């Protein structure tokens, strides 16, 4: 979903750049509440993992391939604010060193694959946590659902941006159908990777997973109450 230079006009690119800059500024403040001495190293590992997995493509048919975006995965592991910082670093490195997306489109890519996937992924994750059993084992399933939804929503967000500032006249109905059909399949792959990654960490160190903190706190409260 990396947007190259020239796909969107200058005003739209500038607007998404401003939104991305504001989002990163807010994330810098929010990350202070999410990280501590135990979990701070995990942020670097998450950024490295997402960078590495985004370099690997999996086929989705008709000569098309996809790769992990990772916004929902990062949000569940280290919190939404820290996740946006991790994603922004990944996109900056990809842009400058690997020409994935253009420099003028960096703000657009951070907005679409960073802000949108993180915010939507975290919202869906928290919503699923409210309806799923309050167990640590439910965290990977909720994370997978969040990843599944976040990818097509980001694709729709791109269609919205293109409707406002696209530089080539493309029928929006066809663009929407193409983006959703491809990214729905990518979302399935993202959900599987997210489920396995979160499940692996939860099985060993659930205390390091930001998305599991509420469940662990509830369980501890119940145990303390039962012990009285």
Rg of Cα set: 18 Å
- Terminal Cα separation, in Å? 54 Å
CATH-level-2 architecture = Orthogonal Bundle
Spell the H/E element sequence: HHEEHHHHHH
- Count helical runs: 8
Q: How would you describe this structure to a colleague?
A:
The protein has 228 residues and is mainly alpha-helical. The chain has a single domain, classed as Orthogonal Bundle (Arp2/3 complex 21 kDa subunit ARPC3), CATH 1.10.1760. Helices cover 74% and strands 3% of the residues. The protein has helices spanning 10-34, 40-54, 71-78, 80-98, 106-131, 138-165, 172-204, 213-227; strands at residues 58-61, 64-66. The protein has a two-stranded antiparallel sheet with strand order 1-2. β1 (58-61) and β2 form a beta hairpin. The longest helix is centred in the C-terminal third of the chain and has 33 residues, at 172-204. The chain is globular, with a radius of gyration of 18 Å. The mean pLDDT is 89.
Pick out its properties.
two-stranded antiparallel sheet; Arp2/3 complex 21 kDa subunit ARPC3; globular; 228 residues; mainly alpha; 8 helices
Topology:
Elements: H1 10-34, H2 40-54, E1 58-61, E2 64-66, H3 71-78, H4 80-98, H5 106-131, H6 138-165, H7 172-204, H8 213-227
Antiparallel strand pairs: 1-2
Helix pairs in contact: 1-4, 1-5, 2-4, 3-4, 3-5, 3-6, 4-5, 5-6, 6-7
Briefly, what is this?
It is built from eight helices and two strands.
């Amino acid at each position: 979903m990396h947007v190259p230079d020239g796909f969107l006009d200058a005003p739209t690119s500038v607007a998404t750049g401003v939104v991305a800059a504001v989002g990163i500024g807010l994330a810098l403040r929010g990350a202070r509440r999410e990280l501590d001495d135990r979990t701070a190293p995990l942020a670097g590992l998450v950024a490295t993992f997402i960078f590495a997995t985004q370099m690997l493509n999996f086929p989705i048919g008709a000569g098309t391939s996809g790769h992990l975006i990772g916004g929902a995965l990062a949000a569940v592991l280290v919190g939404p604010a820290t996740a946006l910082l991790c994603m922004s670093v990944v996109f900056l490195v990809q842009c400058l060193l690997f020409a994935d997306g253009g420099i003028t489109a960096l703000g657009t890519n951070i907005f679409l694959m960073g802000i949108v996937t993180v915010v939507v992924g975290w919202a869906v994750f928290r919503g699923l946590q409210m309806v799923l059993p309050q167990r640590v084992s439910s965290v990977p399933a909720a994370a997978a659902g969040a990843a599944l939804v976040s990818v097509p929503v980001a694709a729709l967000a791109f269609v919205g941006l293109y409707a406002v500032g696209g530089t080539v006249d493309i029928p929006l109905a066809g663009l929407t159908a193409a983006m959703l059909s491809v990214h729905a399949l990518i979302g399935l792959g993202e959900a599987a990777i997210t489920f396995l990654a979160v499940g692996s960490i939860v099985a060993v160190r659930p205390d390091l997973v930001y998305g599991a903190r509420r469940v662990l706190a509830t369980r501890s409260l119940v145990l303390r109450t039962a012990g009285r």
